[in-house]
Specification:
mainly alpha; Growth Hormone, Chain: A; 17 helices; globular
């Protein structure tokens, strides 16, 4: 039975704010990290654990969110997650040393892991199927806009107040989300029929945790040249193999393997993984490119990438109607194509690229991403039974986050190596005896100041080529997802029609 309109409005508000809590916090701290490093007297490697601890614990706890919601009810688990994340934010804001903030970031990650998947499930459960396109547009706004406004908001709060306000800003948002949820979402009956699979949970947690540590530490210790990374990779693979075997042979596995028999859902996971690589990575690369090579301040860089968020809001409004009019697959085709075009444009960026080109490239990507993400989410759920949505939502979020981790780690590593290689190539063209080149830059051959300036410019150009290689690679990954759309079952296109039975797809 559908809730009254006022309750649905509050449910939507609670779900969107809960989603934004996690989405904004995943990027807002990155801008404040240098200031935190100074206050906490931490090295760069030590400060990285402020980010890494949050990501690792969140990855481990994400699959657990589905089982907890099924066992204890959506309302109970989501309300506790919002409250716990808000309290964790306060504790991070008042932390006095590195150990405290790393522990409190782990608290944030543990509670925050449930916010995105369970908010999605709440909206799908409370609204009728014919309104899923609109509510997914609303929910997707929080997912897509959060990482865009995070750096802008974090830079402004850090410059104007303190890095601690990057955490305190979560308190009013969390309070409104919790009150709205408690006032609107009815209690659901807990389901105790499926026991907790401790063995499966431990194996999956070990596999994900070690894999995330491998990605986070790889670039720092030179990847597989390090015994540490080889150990992470080996034991992660062993734990994942044991988890798969256990899931196939266990009576009540931690992850319901029957979900993967649904073709729409399985294909949606693969595409979601690719979206995590191709969409999240630019949000990390572009601010770095603007600050390091173009010389913008964090606040200025944040405003330049804000065009992604503005166009994403417009796309959310258009995407819902477009999905119900021409179907999800054509809508996703448009979205993926636009995302690939924007990444190809970014691949042409240089140190002399004007601001207008940067804004247009971000706007195109911001418009294309929701047209892909929103219908993909609905298609992945369209042929699943209602009772499987909670666990399915957790798996979709998990695959997107893993894709994001793989994308960020791979592009950062490729950037560093590409910059080094290109710098060695460029340096070959300048020698103390090449008078024409020195004259072209207005300096005498071998002058110390001129040499330093020349080497600095060569480094900028080499890094610019490295960024271009990254963006072109991401464009190729985006285009590679297009054939997967053909694997989606046409029956999943009828999202707007509430004629799907509970056993559809099985």
């Amino acid at each position: 039975m559908t809730a009254p309109p006022r309750s649905l409005l509050l449910v939507s508000l609670a779900a969107m704010l809960a989603t934004m809590l996690y989405a904004v916090d995943s990027t807002i701290v990155n801008v404040a990290l240098p200031h935190m490093q100074g206050t906490l007297q931490a090295t760069q490697d030590q400060a990285a654990w402020i980010v890494t601890s949050y990501i690792v614990i969140s990855a481990i706890a994400t699959p657990l969110a589905g089982w907890l919601a099924t066992r204890f009810g959506l309302r109970a688990v989501l309300s506790i997650a919002i409250a716990g994340f808000t309290v964790g934010s306060v504790l991070c804001g008042i932390a006095t040393d590195l150990t405290e903030i790393v522990v409190f970031r782990m608290v944030q990650g543990a509670f925050g892991a449930a916010l995105v998947p369970l908010s999605q499930v709440v909206l799908l459960r409370e609204f009728p199927r014919e309104k899923h396109a609109r509510v997914m547009a609303l929910w997707g706004m929080g997912v897509m806009v959060g990482p865009v406004i995070g750096p802008t908001l974090g830079g402004w709060l850090t410059d104007s107040w303190s890095w601690r306000w990057a955490f305190f800003i979560n308190v009013p948002i969390g309070a409104i989300a919790w009150l709205s949820l408690m006032a609107s979402l009815p209690k659901s009956a807990p389901d105790s029929r499926r026991p907790f699979d401790l063995t499966g949970f431990v194996l999956l947690s070990a596999a994900l945790g070690l894999f995330q540590l491998m990605l986070d530490r790889g670039q720092t210790v030179d990847w597989f040249q390090s015994t540490e990374i080889v150990g992470y990779a080996f034991f992660s693979a062993v734990a994942m193999y044991m988890f798969v075997v256990h899931s196939l042979t266990g009576v009540h596995p931690f992850v319901d393997i029957h979900l993967f028999k649904d073709r729409n859902f399985t294909v949606s996971l693969v595409v979601m993984f690719a979206i995590g690589i191709a969409v999240i990575s630019p949000s990390v690369l572009l601010p770095s490119f603007l600050q390091q090579l173009k010389g913008y301040t964090p606040t200025q860089a944040g405003w330049l990438v804000a065009s992604r968020g503005l166009s994403a809001i417009v796309a959310m409004m258009v995407g819902a109607r477009l999905t119900t009019t021409i179907g999800p697959r054509p809508t996703m085709l448009i979205g993926i194509t636009l995302a690939a075009i924007s990444l190809a444009i970014m691949g042409g960026f240089s140190v002399d690229t004007p601001e207008s080109t940067i804004i247009w490239a971000g706007a195109i990507q911001g418009f294309g991403t929701p047209l892909t993400f929103m219908p993909l989410t609905m298609v992945g759920f369209s042929t699943l039974p209602d009772h499987a949505r909670t666990e399915a939502g957790s798996l979709q979020t998990l695959l997107r986050n893993i894709g994001a981790s793989v994308g960020v780690s791979a592009t950062v590593a490729m950037l560093a190596r590409s910059a080094q290689v290109n710098q060695s190539y460029l340096v070959e063209h300048f020698t103390p005896y090449d008078v024409a080149r020195w004259t072209a830059i207005g300096s005498e051959p071998g002058a110390n100041a001129a040499t330093a300036g020349l080497l600095g410019e060569i480094g900028r150009q080499a890094s610019s080529i490295g960024y271009a290689n990254d963006f072109y690679l991401l464009a190729a990954v985006t285009v590679a997802t297009l054939p997967l759309l053909l694997l989606l079952r046409s029956r999943g296109a009828a999202i707007a029609k509430p004629a799907i039975t509970a056993d559809a797809g099985h």
